[in-house]
Amino acid sequence: QVQLVESGGGLVQPGGSLRLSCAASGFTFSSAYMSWFRQAPGKEREFVAHITGGITNVYYAYYEDSVKGRFAISRDNAKNTVYLQMNMLKPEDTATYYCAAVPDNTPRFESPSTYNYWGQGTQVTVSS
To answer: For residues 79 and 22, is the Cβ–Cβ distance under 8 A?
Structure first.
């Protein structure tokens, strides 16, 4: 049974930091391609960050333009966990953040419809 469980969300002031975690089980995590998406109330789910998978232990990261230089995605295959370090947070980063997994490499990693598996989400609120 595939499970993705996010944690680490919360309330933070503008300019602050949070680290989200996504613990995976039920599939071969090390070879899976992982992403973070977010969804604000009344808006569509949008791509945030992606990290490649595979067997080479060489991974590449991609980011949505508005988070480049502020967010960093990483993975720990020994812990079956993907992370999203979020720095210099802004009120517009407020959303529910979801991790997602797909077993194969795909050029369409920014599209939610690409993904086979999703977590339940964790709320991030940036407010003073």
So the answer is: no
Please give the single-letter amino acid code of residue 88.
Answer: M
pLDDT for residue 81: 97
**In a 3-state reduction of DSSP, which class is residue 79?**
coil
Mean predicted confidence (pLDDT) in 22-46: 96
CA angle 32, 52, 22 (to 5 degrees): 60
The 10 Å Cβ neighbour count of residue 29 is 21
Is the CB of residue 97 less than 8 Å from the CB of residue 38? Answer: yes
What distance lies between CA 115 and its chain's CA centroid?
12
Query: Mean pLDDT for the chain?
Result: 95
Give the C-alpha separation, 55 to 58, whole Å.
Answer: 8
* pLDDT for res 57: 79
120 token code pair: 């339940």
